[in-house]
Every structure is written in C-alpha cells, then in structure tokens.
Amino acid sequence: MMGDKKFLSKVFIAMVLAAVLVVAGCSSSDNASGDSDSGDGVTVDIFQFKVEFKEQFEELVAKYQEENPDVTINVQTVGGGNDYAASIKSQMSSGDEPDIFNVGGPTDIEEYRDYLSDLSDTAAAEAALEGTLNSVTEGDQILGLPYSQEGYGLIYNKAILEQAGINPDELTTFEALEEAVATLDSQKEDLGLEAVFALPAKELWVMGNHLANAYIAPEFENDITAAYEAETINFEYGDQMKRMLDLQSSYSVQPVLSLDYSQQVEQLFAQGKVAIIQQGNWIYPTLEQMDPEFAENNIGMIPMPVEGLEGHLPVGVPQYWVVNKNSSEEVQQAAKDFLDWMYTSDAGKEMVLNDFKFIPAYEGYDTAQISDPLSQVVYSYSEEGKTIGWTFMATPVGWNEDVLGVNMQRYLNGDIEWQEVLDTAKQEWEKSRQ
Amino acid sequence: MRNRSVSFWLFVTPTLLALALVVFVPFIYGFVFSFTDWNGLSANEFIGLANYVELFQDKEFLNSIWFTIKFAVASIVLVNVIGLGLALLVTQRMRSSNILRTVFFMPNLIGGLILGFIWQFIFVSAFDAVGSALGIEALQGWLSTTETGFWGLVILNVWQYAGYIMIIYIAYLESVPEELLEAAEIDGANSIQRFWNVKFPLVAPAFTISLFLTLSNAFKLYDQNLALTNGGPFNSTQMVAMEIYNTAFSESDMAYAQAKAVIFFILVAAVALTQVYYNKKREVDL
Fold first, then answer.
1. What is the CATH number of domain A150-316+378-433?
2. How far apart are CA B257 and CA B234, in angstroms?
3. CA nearest to A387, candidates A85, A134, A76
4. Which of A6-20, A280-294, B55-69 has the lowest mean pLDDT?
5. Closest residue on chain B to A258 (Cα)
6. Are A125 and A133 a contacting pair, CB within 8 Å?
7. From the CA of A397, how many Å to the nearest CA of chain B?
8. pLDDT band, residue A179 (cuts 50/70/90)
9. Does the keyword rRNA-binding apply (chain B) (predicted)?
10. Cα–chain-centroid distance for residue A26?
C-alpha cells in the first residue's frame, strides 16, 4: 500500500511538472510566432474576416506557397462583424499578433494605428482604383489594401416587374418608384406576391448602415474622410431617408421588426414572394445556390432614389488588408509580396475574379469576366464614377447600428416620431466626437 | 481533513492552478481595468470611478438589468413549478415514466444557440402559420414586440431547463422515506396533504439547489438571447450579459463594459448568496 501511495504521488508530481511546462511553453511560443523563423524561410500569419471565401482563399495561399517554397502562410478565418473585432482584439492583447489582418475603415484605422505599416510601396497600392484608398490614406502613407468592391441598392425580380409592366430603369425618382410600388401592390394577387418589399428591420445593419448611408453620404459630399472628421451631422437628407424607410416598411411583409436577412433573401425574394428588396451584390452566391437559373437571368439592381444624386449607387470597400508593423522587416516584406501577388499577378487576378468572385478594386482586370449580374451593375456604376461613398465605415463606433438603427426600430414600432430619431442620432454623434 | 498531506496538495494544485489562471487572475485584471480607459489594446489613463458614475446614468444598461430581473423572476418561478410538476409526474408508478424522464430531459442536451434558432422558427413561422389559419391574432407577429420577445425567451428557457431541474427534484422525491408517507397515510392524510406536509418540506434542499441554478442561469443567459431575439426589437430584449458584450465589442468600450461586468457580478452574487442563506435556514433535517 505504501508503495502505491508513493507511486501515485510521483505520478502527480510528474503531472504538475508537465502542466507547468505546458503553461510555460504556451507563453514562450507567443514570442516566437510573430517573428520569422529565420533560416528556412519566412512564416506569415494571416487573420482574416471573410468566411464566405475561406476555401478559395486557402487554395490561393496553397498555390502561392507552391511557387514560393520558402514562404509559409498560415490562414485563420473568424467570421463576420463583432466576432472578428473581438477575436482580433484578444489576439493583439495576448501578444500573438498576426502579420496580416483586416480593418474596416477610418474608425478601425484609428484604433489599430500603432500596428499598421505603410503599404505605399506595393504594386497593389499603385493599381488600386481611384477612391478605394481614400479612407486608408494618411498623408503620403497608405495603410491598407482593398479587398474588393461591393455595392447595394434595390434588387428586383425581373419577371415580376415585367409582368406588371414596369421598367426598372425608369425608377430613378421617388415619385416613379412610389408609383411603381403602388402598381405592384394593387396587382399583388395576380403576381403571386405576399408584399412588394421585404424590409428586414430586425437587421440593424440593413437600416442603420445601408439605408441610412444613401442619405448621409451626400451630406458629406461622399467623402468618407469628411464624415470621419465631422463634428456633427445635420441630416440634410433626413426627410428622404424617412421617405425611403416608410415606403419600404409600409409595403413590406409584416411584421418588419422580426423579419431577418435570411427570411428576406431566401424565403421571400428567392421564392418570388416579394418583388424588390434592398440588398447588395453579396446575396448572389446564396441565390445562385438556391436557383442558378433565377439568379443568373432574373434579377437586377437599381439605386435607391436620392434627390440631387439620381442614378448613383452606394459602392464601397468592405474590408482592407493591413500589415502588422510589429512583425520583423522580413515578414512584412513577405506579407506585402503575397498581397501584391494576389492582386497583381496573372494567376492571382484570375483567382480573385473567378474563384473569389470579387468585384476588383484594382486596375488591369478583364472585367468582361465578371459573371454575375449584380456585380456587373456595381462595377459599371463604379467605372462611371457614379457612386455614393460608404460613410458607415467612418461614423462614430457603433453609431449606425446601436443608435440610428435601434431608433429606426423604435420609430417603426410607433414609439417615437421621426424627428426624435434624427435628434437622438445627432446628439450621440456630437457626444462621441467631442 | 485537518491532516493535509502532500498528496492532498498534489491533488488540489492542478485544479487550483487552472482555476486561478482562468478565473481569479482575469477577474482581478478586469477589476483593475474597470478604473481605466482601457480600449482592449492599451490603457492610458487611470480614471477612477468615472466608468461607474457613467453607468448608473446609462439608460440602456439599466433597462437591460430591469429586463433581466423580470426575466429571471418569470423563468425561475416557471422552471421550478414545471420542473417539480414533471418530477411528481414521473415518480408516480407509471409504465412510461422512464421514457418520459428521457424525453423531458432531452431539450437540455441541445445547445443554446441551436435551440434559439429552432424556437425562432417556431415563434416566427410556425406560430404565424397556425395563427393565420385559425384566425388567432395573439399568435401572429411574435418576437416583433417587446412582450412577445420577453415571453419567447421565457418559454425557451423553461422548455430547456425544466427537465434538468426535474432530475434534481426526482432525486429528492425518491429519497423521501416510505415509512413517513405510510405513517401519514395511516393517520388519514390524503394525497395533497401528504405532498404539502411530508414531501414538500423534505424536498426543500432541492429548492435551494434548483433556485440557485436557475437563478444564476437566468442572469447569465446569453446564447439563447443572441439566437432568439438578438436584443431586438430596439434592444428592448437585451439582457445584461449581451449588453456588456455589445459595449465591449461593438462599441469597443472595454473598460466601461468591464465596470458594468463588475456591477453585474456584485448584483448576481448578492442575490444568489441571500437566496442560499435564506433557503438553508428553511431546510428540514431528518
């Protein structure tokens, strides 16, 4: 018995020691990763945001590693919105910093300013389309490289509009749009519609970011930097914002406050139960998966009407790639080389266009290859320069969703007047810009 | 117990170490950070109690506390009443009682997020379909108002936890000595009297445990909240845990969120300890 006990305690001592070693090992490996494993090549850690193209991106990385055997690239993907912000933050504060990561716009840039290295010497920065670098330029430094372009507007069901005798290209003004919507509404039963619109008022980003932006950006003359520096907001286009919101909500499937994105796109629009939805080109892969025929031939997109800016589509850069300044020189260079290769080499361009299905934010792409109809619309507006900036990347943190979006919900519920929505939003803006 | 040998500490140390690393140290860290302007990356300034002063004027935070308290009261009462009811049901001598136990316990095996999405579908689509088919207006438009969001959360929580709490009650109900019940029966007590005067006092320890579990669970609820309503409409069904998370990660106000979390901790600890103390006094020892 005594022997057993001794044996057991030895086992436990061993286990405790092992545990201590593991803990110690973890903390020391923190310092090692970030830096390069000099000798046999460089290791670049990428921490990226876009779940939708994870597999295709990893394929591209594998291809790059084949061509450059001395570079090892680790990709980590953490999905959307808050989750990415939360994970990148904890990665940074744990000291296990990635070498390449993503930021959204000026607000993120300010937060991570100490981590961002200058990318103005990259070929990709050179090739970036005009305007796409505005929100990441600081003096003569360029801090980020755009992922791609995205745009949103009113996406319509071609067949239904045709059946009702409506030409979507003529719906450039509020009057025309409202008339068309009334026409559709009166023929609801013949067209098999549940309602004309589906407004997913549950999704704060659809209202607070996208809808509102079409009527906020013009106030700042489409300049993201101006919005970022503005100390106040006057809602010069606030009446039009209300008009758009009222139009969508009163002709929407009810109740709007519990309607979400997947109901809007998958259950209602894709099934032909609503004629028009306010969304962006990112819904294409979902529609294609459900019904390729419908997605390819039966949808189109028009801008939301904005008086004074008719025929302008809100187009922006959803995310930027940035390179960590704290990584070693060698790793930073490898990271830049990789980004350059992705966006400016032939093989890279090919994959960006055909596998990622990105709307390129760079010159030198064969844009005839953009396959889906929504991306084509976005690209053609962007090419003509008829765009409205994405100011929600430059508003005070959380303002669009948690202040404006939430108060729009209150308004839709009949709790407050429209003026109160604007007043509260203005107050909060000023408070955080003091 | 007094003789704490080397092996005692060897057994305790790994757990203690792990607990200290993942609970105590972060807790103290967080407490310290709540007095600074920490944004998650760097803390520049020690700002004293400013965060705490601000949060007592923060309507959103106070609303979420109030909402959580209402939710906790409703779901604690319902979970325990239904849990005890189910336990009484399956301790009757019935042939199907084993199957019923399994069935009642099952919801507890499903993760909160998945449950939330399933119930979202039930509330939004299934309720609506039944409501419009039968013309019952009360079943339509669920989760689009604060009230339906509230009851949706309560229903979801009760459905998930009643079975779990049932197991605890079963254990205590089955340990009630036969002879006491028999003696009561001989004395002429009917089944209701037997329940209230014999079983109920003896099951009291189960109340202590169950109330504590349901209480802390109701206060800390996050994933069901996220999946079912995500705080909507207009953040009116946002519980404290979610409010804190959003302050930290969508508004990027880490130190402020940390201060809220400290207040939240004090609140939950105070309620839970009072409750345990009070219930302990009422327990009957055999």
1. 3.40.190.10
2. 20
3. A134
4. A6-20
5. B144
6. yes
7. 6
8. very high
9. no
10. 34
ipTM: 0.73
Q: Which tokens belong to B58?
A: 């923060």
Higher per-residue confidence, A383 vs A159: A159
Collect all residues with Cβ–Cβ distance below 8 Å to B137 and sequence separation of at least 6: B131
Model pLDDT, residue A17: 55
Residue B104 domain-assigned (yes or no): yes
- Ranges of chain B whose pLDDT falls below 70: 1-3, 283-286
Q: Where in chain A is the domain with CATH 3.40.190.10?
A: 33-148+318-364, 150-316+378-433
| pLDDT above 80 for A415 | yes
Please state which of the four CATH numbers 3.40.50.1220, 3.40.190.10, 3.90.700.10, 3.40.50.300 is assigned to the domain occupying A33-148+318-364. Answer: 3.40.190.10
Asked if A407 lies within 8 A of B11 by C-beta distance, the reply is no
| Chain A residues near any Cβ of chain B (below 8 Å) | 5, 8-9, 12-13, 15-16, 19, 23, 81-82, 85-86, 89-90, 92-93, 111-112, 114, 201-202, 204, 254-258, 263, 397-398, 401-402, 406-407, 409-410, 413, 415
Q: What is the C-alpha separation between A46 and A335, in angstroms, rounded?
A: 9
Question: Is B163 contained in some domain?
Answer: yes
Query: Does residue B24 lie in a domain region?
Result: no
Question: Which helix (H) or strand (E) element contains residue A153?
Answer: strand A150-157
Quote the CA–CA distance of B107 and A394 in Å, as a whole number.
44
Answer whether A85 sits within 8 Å of B230, measured CB to CB.
no
Q: Which domain holds residue B105?
A: 50-282
**Residue A276: pLDDT band with limits 50, 70, 90:** very high
For residue B95, being part of any structural domain is answered with yes
Query: Count of domains in chain B?
Result: 1
pLDDT tens-digit series, residues B11-22: 999 999 999 999
pLDDT of residue B194: 84
**pTM: predicted TM-score of the whole model, two decimal places:** 0.79
Q: Summarize the confidence of residues A70-89 as an average pLDDT.
A: 80
Average pLDDT of the segment spanning A115-140 = 86
- Helices A418-433 and A238-250: angle between axes, nearest 10 degrees: 130
Q: Are A95 and A67 within 8 A, CB to CB?
A: no
What pLDDT does residue B1 have? Answer: 52
